[in-house]
Amino acid sequence: MAKFSRIQVIIAMDRTGLVPLFYNEDIETCKKIVDALYKGGARLLEFTARGDFAHEVFGKLSKYCSKEYSDMILGVGSVTSGAEAALYMQLGANFVVTPVFQEEIAITCNKRKVLWSPGCGTLTEISKAEALGCEIVKLFPGSIYGPGFIKAIKGPCSWTSIMPTGGVSPNEDNIKSWIKAGAVCLGMGSKLIVKNAKGEFDYERIQDLTEKSLEWIKKYKS
Hints:
By secondary structure, the protein is of the alpha/beta class. Helices cover 49% and strands 15% of the residues. It has ten helices and eight strands.
């Protein structure tokens, strides 16, 4: 069951402005990534459940976060059905992120008062999602739309909160462009959860990039 309320998650997303996201089938690797992100200052994490038996890894990671990092808000991503959302909420997901907008996922999450963030690519999709109670819309893939899309949406719909994912990088210019365009928070994946020349996760680098990203986000949000 969700440990954090929908309101708490929304506030954390707005306050920190960063949602790191990753998937790995090995629980020990996942723990080390979480360690690095937490040390870097991240307090939200999206586990993108894209592999076989991903729910088993998520369940273990959920217990690890609850034990080691009581203020880490763990959510799940790449969810494509209401049944899948229900499964991960039962395993402790505090928010649900989807690549597409599906009404059944909205209804399932709303029943538990769990925040859900659907992938939308048009103002019509965004409007429909908000009508079903969506608080923060995921702009996906962000690399296709760019910061200009958010700025255009915020014109007629200033109340809309958008989190771009895809095309977001842990460098100052990129972060500045998204935040200044009106993004409420940024979803960062492989460009934040980096590997070294040997193809191994670089935990020190992940921590460093997280720290710097949060600093830049705070700078341009203020």
